Amino acid sequence: MIKVNVYKQSNYPIKATKIKAVVQLVLEKNGIMSDSTVEVALVGRKKIAELAMSYLGESEQVAGEHPVLAFPDSEIDQPFIYQPGHDLYLGEIIIGYPKAVETANTSGKLVEQVVLELAEHGALHLAGIHHD
Fold it and tell me: Where are the transmembrane segments (predicted)?
């Protein structure tokens, strides 16, 4: 079973159950069937900028413009030791809620739809599927 934990930095009006369902579906469709855990966080512009500056080495001007960041566990510098009987940790998906709102406003989509698309995009990265 794939467990998806959803955290919200603020009271963003997106249902965690929908995010969980999208992430689980994407991972299962891409062959991940083992017991595993994924973390998803909806954060503000300041937090996503902090993460992009810290982990991607970006400037402050660029860092806050990310709609989504994914941190697959497979991309850490050294191998992680999993304890027997524990779930496989796949990684984290960080969604910038303000950027999702901006995208929704310019695309004519609902904010919830954009957030779910970003969750799907992040889940694909955790499954090892990357874009150019």
Answer: none
